[in-house]
Amino acid sequence: MTVDAAALVARLGEVQARVARASERAGRAPESVTLVAVSKNHPVDALRVMYDAGVRDFGESYVQEWLAKADALPDDIRWHLIGRLQSNKAKLIDARAHLVHAVDRASLLDALQRRADAPLDILLQVALGDEDSKAGVSPEGLATLLARARGCDKLRVRGLMTIPPPATHPGQNLAHFERLRALCEAHSAPELPLEVRSMGMTDDFEDAILAGATHLRVGTALFGART
Ligand SMILES: *Cc1c(COP(=O)(O)O)cnc(C)c1O
Q: If DSSP states are collapsed to H, E and C, what string results for 115-132?
């Protein structure tokens, strides 16, 4: 697959402009929103184009694919692992992981804790608005999972993440995003703030900004459709 660098850079500019406009509407500084470029299934050359255009936050879903890309690309990239993780992959996650977004169960906490490495920053994934989803802890189960995570000395819980159902119209997921923000506030403790709110994808990131997202996970709008 050849990479159309001009198209990628143009899409990046469009998305950054949309982020800036939505931030302004929300009365937020654009720097308070981190755009994570979700590059799963896209070739290293496409990431390199985005890197050269200034992107430093990349999101990957599959551990082996991520490790190969991390080997090939500069080491000042902040790598976000955003996909559902199998517990047996936890031991492969090394210090190059900046933030693990989708921790949703006790067995995965235990597997991440057993890695002997330096402390790892994680987010707990909460299931909102998608009754069928097997990914994510329920809002009712969050306190229990959070207590367990805070008991793991190799893990630092930085905040929460959610993947609501795909949005077909503006405003559709706004209530879910506001709920995630409220959960972050409700479950923060003085020494243990939940400051990271990872929410918003290609079809709904403007609503996520309105509701207080700190990290957007945007793939298609930046890289085009995944094959
Ligand atoms: C693939 C993926 C995204 C990006 O989705 P787009 O709709 O392409 O922006 C965001 N978050 C997660 C968890 C993903 O797996």
A: CCCCCEEEEEEECCCCCC
Does ligand 1 come within 6 angstroms of the Cβ of 201?
Answer: yes
Instruction: Output the 3-class SS for 24-65.
Output: HHCCCCHHHCEEEEECCCCCHHHHHHHHHCCCCEEEECCHHH
Residue 53's pLDDT is what?
Answer: 98
Atom of ligand 1 nearest to the CA of 82: 13
213 lines ligand 1 (CB under 6 A): no
DSSP assigned state of 192: B
pLDDT for residue 116 is more than 80: no
Cα 111 to Cα 102: distance, rounded to the nearest angstrom: 14
Amino acid at 197: R
Counting from 1 in the atom list of ligand 1, the atom nearest the Cα of 226 is 8
- pLDDT of 114: 94
